[in-house]
Design goal:
44% of the residues lie in helices and 14% in strands. Bound molecules: flavin-adenine dinucleotide. Flavin-adenine dinucleotide binds next to strand 1, strand 3 and helix 12.
Length: 401
Amino acid sequence: MDFNDSPEEAAFRQEVKTWLAENAQAYREPLPLGPGDIRIAEMGREWQKIKARGGYAAISWPTEAGGRGATPIEEVIFAEEENRYHVPVGPFVGIGVGLAVPTIRAHGTPEQIEQFAHPTLMGDILWCQLFSEPAAGSDLAAVRTRAQRDGDDWVVNGQKVWTSWAHTADWGILLARTDPEQVKHKGLTFFLLDMRTPGIDVRPIRSISGESEFNEVFLTDVRIPDRCRLGEVGAGWGVAMTTLMNERANSTGESLLLPDVSSLVRLARERGLAEKNQRELAALYAREQGLKYFQARQLTALSRGEQLGPMSVISKLVFANVLQDGSAMGLDMLGLEAAFLATEDHRVTRFQYGYQWAAALRIAGGADEILKNQIAERELGLPGEIRADKGVPFSQLPVGR
Ligand SMILES: Cc1cc2nc3c(=O)[nH]c(=O)nc-3n(C[C@H](O)[C@H](O)[C@H](O)COP(=O)(O)OP(=O)(O)OC[C@H]3O[C@@H](n4cnc5c(N)ncnc54)[C@H](O)[C@@H]3O)c2cc1C
């Protein structure tokens, strides 16, 4: 989306294009990996290293933290240009760079920042996010995993779920309950967990796409040294909010691998279906264009140094829904076989993958309904949800018993 570039931004975009042409040649074609091939995480480390050496790994971080000290909009420009290649980027690296390190930099001690920030930037540490549990997803403050103090350590017991890339992660960011007698948002503490610690059992969850990108993680008497606590005891909710704010700002999920409306229009023309599908295509196109202009407005705000408000979640909300509807339409046009058959045909797999990924994207990083609630309450000023758990100690809530 370069129609809004200022002269400086256009110059930066050109610089990035040149750098990518020199350094991302190996990623011109789709990676030779099947679904769920975990070698992508290792490839991700390598690509991260190349970016770090080129000064493009953390564009908007301050230079003293290993970044480029550039603007958030330059970060967006780099991502847009990078997305024109089949580079191995994804949560296996993104959780560390986009979520763990910003949280550590905001709440960590100088020693913690020193230990984790630069190695993560270089791809030497991969991270996973141990937040969700079977009874704590949208209602994250309901986590039941317990951490109890024992000398200089904490002893952790519980179960996490949907933990993306826990099977390749070196470290995890963990939210656990340290005081069940406090109200639910207050008795939580945030930890950094070495994934090689005894007592951690990572069990892959196989999804409908055949991939196993996320896991259940069982924690049994896992010992975490107190120096790996991030923030004060009982202040974990505030720390986790920093993580979630970064997650929601970063997740639109757009990529070259996914179909867009112009690929649907081409398909409809080829199959002689353009007329029949005209109205649906026009509606999808209008939503896609609306999103594009909304994002352009957000970029303009960023380039003026403004903060993005609660409305920024619209990007993911609209993108995931357009992707799901558009991919479904593509599969319809390709015929029944495309919906059911495994194939190597990139054009078909793009719609198949788009359809499956959209379903996950509508939940990950805040489900549609939660994001709509957020817009309703924080932006439109509508009344908040009724909170029956307000002021009640966690141990007295049904979920806490
Ligand atoms: C691809 C993917 C990757 C993920 N990776 C991670 C990860 O790495 N680490 C991690 O910790 N978690 C991860 N998650 C989990 C994710 O954060 C949760 O799935 C999400 O927060 C929703 O929680 P839940 O699954 O428990 O659903 P629930 O919270 O049980 O929600 C079920 C449905 O009820 C709706 N709902 C719930 N509460 C309300 C409400 N108050 N008002 C209206 N509707 C409501 C939801 O919108 C949803 O449609 C991942 C999820 C996905 C899909």
